[in-house]
Specification:
Mean pLDDT: 96
Order of helices and strands: EHEHEHEHEHH
Structural class: alpha/beta
Bound molecules: coenzyme A
């Protein structure tokens, strides 16, 4: 069985992430979306909230595939081994993502050469979307409806007392 892991911070999940999730779901038998518990990123949402937002958002997609949502702390390669993933999936939005992804992918190959990483190119309409951008728009009471599912937009509004 081919198990894929799509790791990220997902603070919060966006339509850009969900597009990658849906497409990755077609490539593997089971997709595990894994939320990195990295306090250094000073996330707006707790890990538990991010798990819940991801679960509701994936359940709302109009395509069915086998998936689950987990969280992890520590090294991604250790987590991938624990959950018996064969492949790690990352999205690439623009050339600017490349340097960072090149660095972490090669570090991951050095740490665990049994784990392959594959990249899915983000669709052009999502090239500029990031969680930070969405949080900034929401913090100024802007409409984030085009970037995140309704449930995520509602939670963002609560966070910013809108
Ligand atoms: N659509 C929308 N946004 C996207 C996106 C897409 N397709 N792809 C990336 N992004 C955005 C995210 O929203 C996020 O935006 P933000 O910085 O504004 O929050 C940004 O790109 C970073 O993406 P993310 O996928 O969350 O990556 P990350 O830099 O937070 O890294 C891990 C996540 C899990 C891969 C990384 O932290 C990790 O491996 N952690 C474990 C520790 C470890 O093993 N380290 C050693 C690796 S060498």
């Amino acid at each position: 069985m081919r198990v894929g892991v799509y790791p990220g911070t997902f603070d919060p999940v966006t339509w850009g992430h969900l597009d990658i999730i849906q497409r990755a779901g077609r490539l593997v038998d089971h997709l595990i979306v894994s939320i990195a518990d990295n306090p250094k990123k000073n996330p707006l949402f707790t890990v538990e909230q991010r798990v819940e937002l991801l679960q509701k958002s994936i359940a709302g997609l109009n395509e069915s595939f086998s998936w689950s949502v987990l969280s992890f702390s520590g090294l991604l390669v250790d987590h991938a081994h624990e959950i018996k993933a064969n492949v790690m999936i990352r999205g690439l939005r623009a050339v600017s993502d490349f340097d960072y992804e090149f660095q972490i992918t090669n570090a991951n190959y050095c740490l665990a050469d049994d784990l392959e990483t594959i990249f899915l190119m983000a669709r052009d309409k999502y090239h500029f979307v990031s969680s930070s951008l969405v949080k900034e728009i929401a913090s100024f009471k802007g409409d984030v409806g085009k970037f995140v599912p309704d449930g995520v937009a509602q939670e963002l509004m609560k966070k910013f007392n809108i």
